[in-house]
Amino acid sequence: MLTEKLTAKKGKSYLSGILALLMMFVFSITAVSAKEREPIPGDVDLDSEVTVADATLIQKYLARICDLSDAQLENADTDKDGHISIIDATRIQEYLVYGRELDRKEPEETTAATQPTTQPTTEITAHRVYPTEPKETEPFENLTYSEKYAKEVLDLINEERAKVGAAPLAADDTLNEVAKIRAKEISTYFSHTRPDGSSCFSAIEGLNIKWKALGENIAGGFDEPTRVMNAWMHSEGHRANILNDTFEIVGIACYNYNGNYYWVQYFMAEW
Asked: How confident is residue 144, by pLDDT bands cut at 50, 70 and 90?
């Protein structure tokens, strides 16, 4: 009788131990799962790592090729500004290429940044980078670049220069082609740094051009020449490039990528 009681007690203790281990195991699995569900900035495809595929997914979303879940949108908003733009994809690329932290805080005033005076350069993006509805593509003769919009931007530039007594800029065919290259590049990597890591000014290398000053303005998301010029003129750095009386010629491009417009002004003063 005593033996049976001891055996029963041992059996109960054994079962209690197993149950305790099972509870610990379940708790451990739950804790890990909760941790895995924590947002990871840049991890758009939710595979627990940040890769170039995440930047590509943002670009597809912006081009309306795919949709993203709420969790994906939270991770895609790398700069935590409340909306998804090409800047978020660019931050992922900079993280992968240069090791820049995704959760870094940018300076409060980032609408204009300049290089040394011999190579002034500025950049701007629309607050709402992409229009709600794509516009008609009529201004785009080949559905890619709009010569009409480029000419309108040139006219607007010279109107602004006339107001301050600066000489008009002349359009330059070679710089127009350079601007087209840059406009296409910024549709996938919005930066004055080119996709290969070189400066935007490397775009004229090999063209046998002698210059003494260069400048670049870039923009994304504005759907008309007047709108992009208005944004540039209300930014000190961009305005300085547009009105700089050192510059003599300019290349201008408006690139249409899936209904989203990218703009480049490429200024030059020749020797």
From this structure: confident
pTM: 0.57
pLDDT tens sequence across 10-61 = 444 555 554 454 444 444 443 333 344 578 888 988 888 888 778 777 766 7
CB 124 within 8 A of CB 238: yes
Cβ within 8 Å of residue 78, ≥6 positions away: 41, 42, 88, 91, 92, 102, 103
Q: Are 115 and 213 in contact (CB under 8 A)?
A: no
Residues with Cβ within 8 Å of residue 178, at least 6 apart in sequence: 203, 204, 207, 251, 266
Q: With CA atoms as reference, report the closest residue to 268 among 138, 167, 150, 119.
A: 119
Spatial separation of the C-alpha atoms in residues 193 and 6, rounded to whole Å:
78
Q: Are 157 and 169 in contact (CB under 8 A)?
A: yes
A 10 A CB-CB count for 223 gives 19
Task: Report d(CA 131, CA 185) in Å as an integer.
Answer: 20
pLDDT exceeds cutoff 90 at 247: yes
Q: 160-191: string of b/e by CB count within 10 Å (b at 16+)?
A: bbeeeebeebeebeebbbbbbbbbbbbbbbbb
How high is the pLDDT of residue 236? Answer: 85
